[in-house]
């Protein structure tokens, strides 16, 4: 078991990162495509803060709960895979050790090292798969939230003469708060 500590440590690091994602917000994915609200040839841009909107309509807790539940299931699945991997590798190594006796040849020792290397590679694959699935889960939850609010965003934007709505986040550094439609969308969704 101690020989597979790098794999276990890697999984624990990933699980720690997963916990950080539970606390993360919704404003880091691309903004929704909205049709022109007033037919103007030059776009009029509004901004919406998805994190603030989710909190204002009470969806933030539901989003975080769903994310937490789905990530816990993913963590359990990954742990199970890692445990099975470690058990199989240890069993193979024990069988070889029993077969080789107390004084294995260099070639026999190499066989044992190959099993450990294969287990480590498989552990890295499991970790990579975990990271990918965690990102997919988060993206799915955020996409569903965006789909749910899109009609209200479109209606609010059109009512205020906006033809484009950007999600506040890393891409939107500075904006005039008069173009923030977050509160108006929240009022429509309540």
Written description of the protein model:
The chain has 190 residues and is mainly alpha-helical. The chain has one domain (2-189). Helices cover 68% and strands 4% of the residues. Helix 3 packs antiparallel against helix 4 (106-159). The chain is rod-shaped and about 80 Å long. The protein starts with a helix and ends with a helix.
What are the main properties of this structure?
190 residues; mainly alpha; 4% strand
List the helices and strands and how they pair.
Elements lengths: L4 H18 L22 E4 L1 H7 L2 H42 L5 H54 L4 E4 L14 H8 L1
Parallel strand pairs: 1-2
Helix pairs in contact: 1-3, 1-4, 2-3, 2-5, 3-4, 4-5
What is the 3D form? rod-shaped
Tell me the strand percentage band: under 5%
Please tally the β strands and state the result: 2
Radius of gyration over C-alpha positions, nearest whole angstrom: 25 Å
Q: How many individual helices?
A: 5
User: What's the number of domains?
Assistant: 1
Instruction: Please give the largest β-sheet.
Output: 2 strands, parallel
Low-confidence stretches: 7-40
Q: List SSEs in N-to-C order.
A: HEHHHEH
Read across the widest sheet, the strand sequence of neighbours is 1-2
Q: Please report the distance between the alpha carbons of the first and last residues.
A: 53 Å
Structural class: mainly alpha
What is the percent of helical residues? Answer: 55-70%
User: Residue-averaged pLDDT, rounded?
Assistant: 83
């Amino acid at each position: 078991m101690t020989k597979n500590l790098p794999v276990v440590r890697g999984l624990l690091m990933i699980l720690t990162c997963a916990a950080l994602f539970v606390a993360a917000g919704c404003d880091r994915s691309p903004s929704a495509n909205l049709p022109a609200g007033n037919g103007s040839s030059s776009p009029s841009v509004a901004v919406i803060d998805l994190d603030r909107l989710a909190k204002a309509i009470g969806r933030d807790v539901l989003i975080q709960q769903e994310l937490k539940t789905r990530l816990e299931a993913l963590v359990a699945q990954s742990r199970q895979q890692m445990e099975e991997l470690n058990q199989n590798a240890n069993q193979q190594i024990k069988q070889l050790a029993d077969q080789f006796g107390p004084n294995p040849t260099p070639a026999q020792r190499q066989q044992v090292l190959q099993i450990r290397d294969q287990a480590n590679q498989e552990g890295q694959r499991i970790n990579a798969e975990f990271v990918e699935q965690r990102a997919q889960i988060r993206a799915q939850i955020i996409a569903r939230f965006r789909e749910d609010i899109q009609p209200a965003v479109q209606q609010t934007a059109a009512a205020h003469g906006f033809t484009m709505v950007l999600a506040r986040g890393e891409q939107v550094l500075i904006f005039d708060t008069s173009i923030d439609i977050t509160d108006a969308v929240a009022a429509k969704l309540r």
